[in-house]
Amino acid sequence: MRGLERAWYAESVRTLAHGRVSNCLVLVHGRDAPRDDEWRDWVRTVLEFKGGHPRICVRTHGGGPNAKQRQVIAHSSIEKFGRPASTAVVTDSVVIRGMITAFHWLVPSGDIRAFAPQALPDALDHLSVPRPFHPTVLETIRRLEREVVSSDLSLGT
To answer: Whose CA is closest to 16, among 135, 128, 114, 149?
Structure first.
């Protein structure tokens, strides 16, 4: 790809998509780190959350926020809600799950846990998503995966 084609491609590819089911925000990452404009939109969605403390189910295919993006969402959430959002990260990656578990041990006040895709019900229980909404969350994840260009993988559950 030439420079101009590469720039157009980078701006046209969706790196994340998000939605909401009941009391749960749903975020799907593709394989790449999110673009800053997409991340700003996500942060705005979290900060506009009505209904108490946000609960976030993240499905990642390897992509995730960079250090600056993580800092923005953490500080914004604490400023708005008094603490970070409760988060369950669903990923096939044992490495990512291990990193999140280690982070949880080091920062116990951060309510973040990692789950394998087959443990999605456990992830939603962790977030206190009512059981009748579990199938809708799964459908939402699958729909959002289709919106993310790099998500040619499926949830596998």
So the answer is: 149
**For 107-133, what is each residue's pLDDT tens digit?**
666 688 999 999 999 999 999 999 999
Q: How far apart are CA 64 and CA 77, in angstroms?
A: 17
Computed on alpha carbons and rounded to an integer, the radius of gyration of the chain in Å comes to: 15
SS3 state of residue 20: strand
The residues near 2 (Cβ < 8 Å, ≥ 6 apart) are: none
Q: How many CB atoms lie within 10 A of CB 89?
A: 22
For residue 138, what are the domain limits?
3-147
In a domain, 156, yes or no: no
**What is the distance between the alpha carbons of residues 124 and 147, in angstroms, rounded to a whole number?**
22
pLDDT at 137: 97
The sign of the dihedral angle between the CA atoms of 68, 115, 60, 79 is negative
Q: What is the CATH number of the domain that holds 74?
A: 3.30.750.24
Alpha helix (H) residue ranges in 16-151: 36-47, 67-81, 94-106, 120-126, 134-147
